Amino acid sequence: MSSGFAQAIIVLLFFGFGIVTGVGIGERVAARLVTRRAYVLANVATLLVGAIATALSCLTPGAVLIGLVLGLMAGTIAGLKMGFGESVGPWKAHDRFFRVNKDQLRRAENGERAEAARRARRDGGPEPELISVQQDAEDAGNGGGAGKAPKRRKR
Questions:
Q1: Greatest alpha-carbon span in the chain
Q2: E strand or H helix at 56
Q3: How far lies 63's CA from each of 51, 52, 57, 70, in Å?
C-alpha cells in the first residue's frame, strides 16, 4: 500500500469529523437567526470563510486539511438549514422534490408566523398559538359541555 491510500482514508475521516462538527456549529448559529435575510447572510459568510480556509489549507504541505474544511462547510450549511426550521431558497425545491421536511415547508408558507416562532424560540418565550382555545358563545353558557361526560340517571 502506498501513502496515498492512507492519506485518502485520513481525508475521509477529517471530512466526517468536519460534517459532524459543522452541523453542531450551524444549529447553534441558526438558533440566533430570526429573518430569512440573516439566514442567507449566515450561509454566505459560511461559504466565504470556507473558501478562505480552503485556500489556506492548500498552502500546507499535506492536503488532508481540505477534507476537514469541506466537511465543516457542508455540515455548517446543513446545520443552518435544519436549525432555522424553515425551507428557504434552493432547500425549498429540494424538500418538495424529495417530499421531506413537510413541517418546514408548511412554516415557509406563512413567513410572518414562522418569524414570530423563531423570535420566540430565540428569546426563550412561548411560541405563538396556532389554534384558538377560546370557547364559542353557545358553549360558554353551558360550561363548555364538550369535555363533560353526560349525567347518569339513577334507577
A1: 94
A2: helix 36-58
A3: 15, 15, 7, 12
Q: In 19-102, at which residue ranges do the beta strands (DSSP E only) sit?
A: none
Same domain, 27 and 90: no
Residues 5 and 67 placed together within one structural domain of the fold: yes
Q: How many domains does one find in the chain?
A: 2
Do 33 and 74 belong together in one domain?
A: yes
Whole-number Å distance between alpha carbons of 51 and 61: 18
Domain identity same for 12 and 42: yes
pLDDT digits (tens, 9 = 90+) for 86-134: 777 777 787 778 877 776 667 667 777 777 777 777 777 776 665 655 6
Which domain covers residue 97, as residue numbers? 86-124
Q: Which residue has the cell 358563545?
A: 137
User: How do residues 16-30 score in pLDDT, each as one tens digit?
Assistant: 999 999 999 999 999
79 and 3 together in one domain = yes
For residue 113, with 0-12 CB atoms within 10 Å meaning exposed, 13-18 middle and 19 or more buried, which class applies?
Answer: middle
CA separation for the pair 35, 39 (Å, rounded): 6
Which 8-state DSSP code applies to residue 145? G
pTM: 0.69
